[in-house]
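Design request, C-alpha cells follow.
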C-alpha cells in the first residue's frame, strides 16, 4: 500500500471545521490558558531507579545509587498540601519513574494517596506486576496504567537492554484480570522496530488490550547519542499512516502520542485531540529529588527548575512560576515567520533546543508545507 494515499477521515471533520477548531484553541491558549493555567496532570517521579536501561530514556534512569531521593513522608506531605490547595477531583495524579514499583514503600505511598482521594494512574515497564501486585494496584485505587512494550521479544529486549519481555507481557496479562478503567500499551517506534508494527498490532490484539499508543523516538536523552535510531521523513510518514489505517480497524484502538503539531490535515486523524503542549499550563511534575518541573521529558536544566518541595509550597510555584511556558519566547528564528506558529506555538517543549533556541524536530515539510 502506498504511503499517504487518500483515506476516509477518522475524525469525520472537514478541513475548514478543523481549522476553525485550531483557531479557537489558539485563542484560548493566548487569552485564557497562559494567564490562568489549570493544573490537570500532576506527575510524581517516584524513583530514577530502573531494572531496564532503555536506549531512548529521557531521564537516563538505571540501576545506580540515588542521592537525595524524596522519602515517603516527604511525598505524603506534598500530597496533603496539594489536597489543601487544589480541587483534586480535577487532577490526575500520574506516577512514574524509573520503575515506580522499585520503591519499597510504593504501596504505602499510593494507599495514602488513595485515602486522600486522589485519582491516579501509573507508567510502568510491567516487569514487576505480578498477580499480587496487580491485585494491590486495584485495591489501592489505580485507575489507569500504561505499560511499555517496544517491539516483539528480540527487539524489545535489545532496546531496553534487559531480558524481561516475558515478564512484561505477564504483567500486562495480570493487569487485564482486573477491571481497571484503562490498560494501555505504549511503544516507542524507532529505526529497528518499525518493521514490526503489523506483528505487534496482531499480537497485542490477542492479549485483549484495547489501547495501543505509538510514539516516535525523540532526539532527547540517550537517543541523542544514537542518532541512527531516529526516524527519517519516510519512516515518520509510515508510522503515522499506519496509525491512521489501524486506529479504528478493530477492538484495539491505535493512537499517536501527545507530541508534535501535525498540520490541519492530520490533526484529529490519529488521536482524539488537537495538539497543545501541556507543559506548565496543564502539567507539572515533582522529580525524584524533590524539584518542581513541568514535563518530566524535558532536559533537567537549572532554568527549567521552578522550585523545590523541600523549600517551596507548590501552590505558590504553580501560580507564580512556569513563566517560560506561558510566553511566546519561542517565536524566533524559523518559528518567527512560520504561518503555523499560531497553532503549534513552537511545538513540544521536550523537543526544543534550549541552547540554540530552535526546534530539534518539526513536521513542517514532512506532513505539511
Amino acid at each position: 500500500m502506498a504511503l499517504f494515499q487518500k483515506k476516509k477521515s477518522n475524525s469525520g471533520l472537514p478541513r475548514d471545521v478543523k481549522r476553525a477548531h485550531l483557531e479557537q484553541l489558539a485563542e484560548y491558549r493566548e487569552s485564557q490558558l497562559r494567564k490562568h493555567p489549570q493544573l490537570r496532570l500532576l506527575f510524581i517521579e517516584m524513583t530514577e531507579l530502573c531494572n531496564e536501561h532503555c536506549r531512548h530514556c529521557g531521564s537516563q534512569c538505571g540501576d545506580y545509587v540515588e542521592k537525595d531521593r524524596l522519602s515517603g513522608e516527604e511525598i505524603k506531605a506534598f500530597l496533603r498540601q496539594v489536597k489543601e490547595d487544589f480541587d483534586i477531583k480535577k487532577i490526575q495524579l500520574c506516577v512514574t519513574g524509573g520503575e515506580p514499583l522499585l520503591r519499597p514503600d510504593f504501596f504505602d505511598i499510593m494507599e495514602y494517596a488513595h485515602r486522600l482521594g486522589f485519582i491516579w494512574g501509573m507508567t510502568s515497564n510491567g516487569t514487576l506486576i505480578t498477580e499480587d501486585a496487580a491485585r494491590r494496584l486495584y485495591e489501592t485505587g489505580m485507575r489507569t496504567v500504561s505499560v511499555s512494550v517496544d517491539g516483539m521479544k528480540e527487539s524489545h529486549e535489545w532496546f531496553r537492554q534487559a531480558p524481561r519481555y516475558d515478564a512484561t507481557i505477564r504483567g500486562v496479562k495480570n493487569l487485564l484480570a482486573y477491571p481497571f478503567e484503562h490498560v494501555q500499551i505504549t511503544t516507542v517506534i524507532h529505526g529497528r522496530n518499525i518493521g514490526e508494527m503489523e506483528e505487534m498490532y496482531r499480537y497485542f490484539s490477542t492479549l485483549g488490550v484495547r489501547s495501543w499508543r505509538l510514539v516516535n523516538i525523540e532526539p532527547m536523552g540517550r537517543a541523542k547519542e544514537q542518532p541512527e535510531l531516529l526516524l527519517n521523513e519516510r519512516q515518520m510518514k509510515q508510522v503515522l499512516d499506519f496509525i491512521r489505517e489501524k486506529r479504528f480497524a478493530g477492538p484495539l484502538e491505535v493512537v499517536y502520542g501527545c507530541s508534535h503539531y501535525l498540520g490541519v490535515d492530520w490533526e484529529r486523524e490519529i488521536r482524539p485531540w488537537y495538539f497543545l503542549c501541556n507543559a506548565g499550563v496543564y502539567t507539572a511534575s515533582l522529580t525524584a529529588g524533590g524539584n518542581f518541573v513541568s514535563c518530566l521529558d524535558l532536559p533537567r536544566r537549572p532554568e527549567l527548575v521552578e522550585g523545590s518541595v523541600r523549600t517551596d509550597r507548590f501552590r505558590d510555584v504553580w501560580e507564580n512560576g512556569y513563566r517560560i511556558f506561558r510566553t511566546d519566547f519561542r517565536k524566533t528564528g524559523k518559528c518567527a515567520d512560520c504561518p503555523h506558529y499560531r497553532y503549534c506555538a513552537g511545538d513540544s517543549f521536550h523537543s526544543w533546543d534550549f541552547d540554540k533556541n530552535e526546534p530539534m524536530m518539526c513536521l513542517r515539510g514532512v506532513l505539511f508545507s
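Comment from the thread starter after seeing the answer: thanks! Residues 1-7 have pLDDT under 50 and may be disordered.
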